[in-house]
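Example 327.
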Amino acid sequence: MRKVTYLVAALCLGLLLGATATTQAQAKTAFATIGTGGITGVYYPTGGAIARMVNDKRDVYGIRATVESTGGSVFNVNAVVSGDLEFGVVQSDRQYQAVKGLAEWEGKPQEKLRAVFSLHPETVTLVAAEDSGVKDIADLKGKTVNIGNPGSGQLQNSIDALTAAGLNYETDIKAEQVKAAEAPGLLQDGRIDAFFYTVGHPNGAMKEATAGARKVRFASITGPGLDTLIKEKPYYAKAFVPMSNYESAVNTEDVATFGVKATFVTSSDVPDEVVYAVTKEVFDNLEEFKKLHPAFAVLTKESMLEGLSAPLHPGAEKYFKEVGLLK
Ligand code: GLU
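Predicted structure in complex with glutamic acid:
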């Protein structure tokens, strides 16, 4: 009987302590929303992976991270800078343009934008129906092509690539501007001939595009104009679309194109301890993080400090100095 009383008393005490701890944690909870992209891209699972690392330590940091599907890089930069989102996944070229006041931010450098770290490589990927005869970007003349939704990273990449290939996107092709998540369906339904998507591999959109009845080919993005573009723009580099991921595609060999990197950004208004915690959890547990998506296989701690143009957020900087990744 006495034992039972002790047990009950211990249980009550436990509940009481637990309740107090919960109240304290709730009082301190910081909410961190991560802007990503369409759910068939790689940003969405990337945001999910980062949120998972941080939420696993909720009792330590009191941070509750959530993920939002968005229109992509340009949307994310604007939402982070305006304070609607705490974090965003953003193409390295878009980070550069936002900081320098170029492209969508012409004459308006985004002074609050801060870099946290970089992530997986992304290739400017051109997917075409085999029956359209498109094997290289130059073959797009006269075709109906999705170049990307406003707010996406890929919209400017498609325009740059088309221009470099000598095609005017307003007059030489019939350009659509729908979200990448809708493009595979439109391609399979015969409503477009091809689409561009700047994205890591493998991804759901390209699995979907190549899995249908209409045969699909990854088209190359090459030529002298493209060589000049890559030479002129500091944020573009030659790259290949790896075909090992897409067995149903017509191609058997990797496809030449150019690419950028996905990066993780925040705003100078986000507290140091929040950015520190996010950085620490991803870096301290990088091997576990890398298992959350095959596109992360190539990541190393050192490479994740490359491709950033915005000033580093002080919370990230503190962590990198602590572990000797920065002097
Ligand atoms: N790079 C694309 C963009 O910035 C998103 C790719 C993805 O969601 O994986 O809009």
